[in-house]
Amino acid sequence: MKLDVDALRYLSKDDFRVLTAVEMGMRNHEIVPAELVERIAGLRHGGTYKVLRNLLKHKLVHHDSSKYDGFRLTYLGYDFLAIKTLVNRGVFAAVGRQIGVGKESDIFEVATEDGTVLAIKLHRLGRVSFRAVKSKRDYLVHRSNYNWLYLSRLAALKEYAFMKALGEHGFPVPAAVDCNRHSVVMSLVKGYPLECNHCAVFKIKQLQNPDEVFETIIGLVVRLAEHGLIHCDFNEFNLMIDDDEKVTMIDFPQMVSVSHRNAKMYFDRDVECIFKFFSKRFNISYQEDRDEEDEKSAGFLDKELAASGFTKRDQDEIEKFIEGGPEPKDGSSSDDESSGKEQTADEDNETVTTKMVALQLADQQVKSSCRNDEERVEENLDSCNVKVVRENEPTASGEQEDSNDLDNSDDDDDGSGDAELVKHLNKQRKRAVAAARGRRALASRNSYKDKGGKSSHNSKIQKQVSKW
Ligand code: ADP
Ligand code: MG
Which member of 20, 91, 114, 399 lies 3.0 to 4.6 Å from 86 by CB, making a disulfide possible if both were Cys? Predict the structure, then answer.
């Protein structure tokens, strides 16, 4: 989806006020009645309608008069709200070119005041029809059009929380900088995905040390499991590699705990994806070494995540809609705002800092006035009996109304009675480690004669582990 931020510079305070009013109204309405927008925005002299026309012109809202005269935010409108908040917070000051198109996201470069280039991921749930979503249509039977904005926001919150926690535990992931609404700001990875459907020009065909990269990657999936987590979309599309063949793992909205009911299947699939890719692309075969090893457990990182703002309840909610799945080979679009408009990543992979559009927001100079404005809008909301929750306040209960409609009976995820599962997972971990070790033995064959007795093997593995 094209993100033309030019318009952002010309939007007035009132424009944002009305846009925010539509967003707030959407907490209770799929289509927000025009009068409600007017009441929430509280502009004098009926100015709201004029502003709505302007927002419509810029495709920031969508007009729907099928049942009544109403409006909803478009993804572009949501983008603008998130970007404005982040700019006001001083997280970045300019938006640049698009650098990635995921199955349900768009990734852009952004630059801070001092010129540091970061990446912003804008989640777009609903762009691709998930199999999982389809299979749960009946679940949404009383909601003809589920609020994708809300789900995108949950996905961003989850991604941010996981990225932060993983980074703090030494995993090679982008540094989590901030998040707002459906967006996550993170450090820019100076590399490329091992595989990319949208990078027509670029494809990694050769690696200097495919064995080492393979081992590092398998080591990652194992170490994740040791921390109680399964990536669920661990494949060549979500592993980036730089010129020094350093691996960075991305894309976390579908991660689950090892206590998840489908943990075994997800773990197997993650490992299998890597084996398949490396055997196909780099002609690497492997043998399984069935030596039994004592497995270490590095604690349960998933249990720590609640502290970072992403609650178990959020996890349950999002899992109803997102099931981990391989990236589709051709991300077909189902969202009316983005269909047919997906951008391929810029073909120029060299320059990073060009073409930044500085965001001098019309009302940016008085930062505090933004907050005051939001507060005033919220006051109006109160008087309209609309429950308000600020973005990124995990303890707020704004979504509860939404989710009250939903069947919250998923109770098989509480980690109880999973001794069998944990045992099985341990086996899977062993299998992956063993496979990596077996691979190591093969890879080493030509370079030295050491067939690797258990102890020498162990020390090599040990070294590798410390590298991870
Ligand atoms: P999705 O969840 O939609 O699959 P991803 O997080 O996998 O989205 O990102 C899609 C693409 O965007 C990646 O394949 C990669 O090319 C690019 N990308 C994502 N995050 C970064 C980053 N931090 N730095 C550079 N490129 C990134
Ligand atoms: Mg991805």
Answer: 91
Please identify every residue annotated as catalytic.
233
- Domain architecture of the chain: domains with CATH: 1-89 (1.10.10.10), 90-188 (3.30.200.20), 191-314 (1.10.510.10)
264-320 tens-digit pLDDT:
889 999 999 999 999 988 887 765 554 444 445 556 666 666 545 677 778 777 777
pTM over 0.85: no
- Nearest-5° angle of CA 40, CA 46, CA 49? 80
How far is the C-alpha of 226 from the C-alpha of 263, rounded, in Å?
A: 13
For ligand 2, the distance from its centroid to the CA atom of residue 9, given in whole angstroms, is: 30
Give me the residues paired with residue 184 across strands.
121, 179
Assess whether the C-beta atom of 188 lies below 6 angstroms from ligand 1.
yes
Write out the two tokens for 455: 């102890």
Cα first-last separation, the chain: 36
Alpha helices in 384-451 (DSSP H): 398-404, 419-444
Best residue among 179, 250, 332, 333 to mutate for probing ligand 1's pocket (most ligand atoms within 8 Å of CB) is 250
